[in-house]
Amino acid sequence: xxxxxxxxxxxxxxxxxxxxxxxxxxxxxxxxxxxxxxxxxxxxxxxxxxxxxxxxxxxxxxxxxxxxxxxxxxxxxxxxxxxxxxxxxxxxxxxxxxxxxxxxxxxxxxxxxxxxxxxxxxxxxxxxxxxxxxxxxxxxxxxxxxxxxxxxxxxxxxxxxxxxxxxxxxxxxxxxxxxxxxxxxxxxxxxxxxxxxxxxxxxxxxxxxxxxxxxxxxxxxxxxxxxxxxxxxxxxxxxxxxxxxxxxxxxxxxxxxxxxxxxxxxxxxxxxxxxxxxxxxxxxxxxxxxxxxxxxxxxxxxxxxxxxxxxxxxxxxxxxxxxxxxxxxxxxxxxxxxxxxxxxxxxxxxxxxxxxxxxxxxxxxxxxxxxxxxxxxxxxxxxxxxxxxxxxxxxxxxxxxxxxxxxxxxxxxxxxxxxxxxxxxxxxxxxxxxxxxxxxxxxxxxxxxxxxxxxxxxxxxxxxxxxxxxxxxxxxxxxxxxxxxxxxxxxxxxxxxxxxxxxxxxxxxxxxxxx
Length: 515
Known about the structure:
Elements: H1 3-13, H2 41-47, E1 71-75, E2 79-82, E3 93-97, E4 104-108, E5 113-117, H3 127-130, E6 138-143, E7 153-158, E8 164-169, H4 173-181, H5 185-194, E9 200-202, E10 208-213, E11 221-226, E12 231-234, E13 241-247, E14 253-262, E15 267-277, E16 284-288, E17 296-304, E18 307-314, E19 317-325, E20 330-338, E21 341-345, E22 350-355, H6 357-362, E23 368-373, E24 380-384, E25 387-393, E26 397-402, E27 405-409, E28 415-418, E29 423-426, E30 432-437, E31 445-450, E32 458-461, E33 467-470, E34 476-481, E35 484-489, E36 496-499, E37 508-511
Helix pairs in contact: 4-5
């Protein structure tokens, strides 16, 4: 995960609220968005919402951990927001935040027409990717203002009908009143957490959606929607702030962490990482207590259904990479010191990490990229240099980028360097990859390669590229360049303009007809 992402997450976590005081000025709530949205209607709504700052947070609370059993709530009574649009085509669709108005837009790629999806503003855009059920049957996301009664809520969009229902508010009325009246720093902290970017998580079987909300107290607790039973359950009720729910690959464990705002330092700190066995609830434990310097704990991935890899995000960067076993509550330290980026391939059990020259020298290493298997203490140098980005691509290779260009390498160490490139993404089937750049520090445009071949097959576009993503079937891909989204389909690979007028940083999800 890039350092830039960590900084963004830290900034998000230290949200407080500046109330715009004045008899003629209305207040609204905002949630995180890129600065590039500043000219869109969505951004206008957000910019007129309450700005968030630490200045409104004062006084520290006490931290207490008391495990609780799930609290059963009445069955969900969805509130119809908009009638089901009439759709007579099978899709697939691209869904994105409407840059010209409220809500979302779903673009039908076969019929080449757009469906408008009505939702209150603001919409938390990261929920576009996190909120799609694994079976493709629904999209649940958070939207609305905390200053309008019960508007900030979970909204369910049925797919592919695109009917919208409100499932549950995220804040209780007492918490909302304190936010509106600006008479509780703790309530403002809670607002920051319930709108945090990683506040939703689907179980692998699409039965449960875990989320954080403050419906039974003044702090954020862990809840989940049970789709089969049509109800919401509260899973814990601590005095700290619950966030970042994550499911194990088999759906038997739900992991989350508790944060607390440290007022003397004006920053959030992670207090504990806990796990609950689902659906039996026969085990609810503290997995480990992070060091005090942890701003948050980041889960990198899962080695198996009961073992995950995590690290502490600190002011000095990522620190102390761990291997954590849920069943035995055992924690093994993989990397004791600081590093920059990490990627993990669960199939081979290989991790790759980057470390800068100054940090590496203190550890007796050279600056660069290293590989190691989790069952070995040996770090193998993959490449020297400064690398700003590293990830595991599910197409089957690690992808790193830096001043030298883009480096692709396998878990076994086979690699290719592509100088001048800024980014690369493999097709889901691993047969192709595409590199691209913005024309500022990297080569503008996008180029198609065949896997394990460093010679490009085709230049796809010469203009700067902002976003590139593949179709799940690897039969095509999309490129966002200078506000226009283009679709390319094999074998012709001719650009077909889908839509224009999109802002930089726009996010998309691909939705097919559910099976």
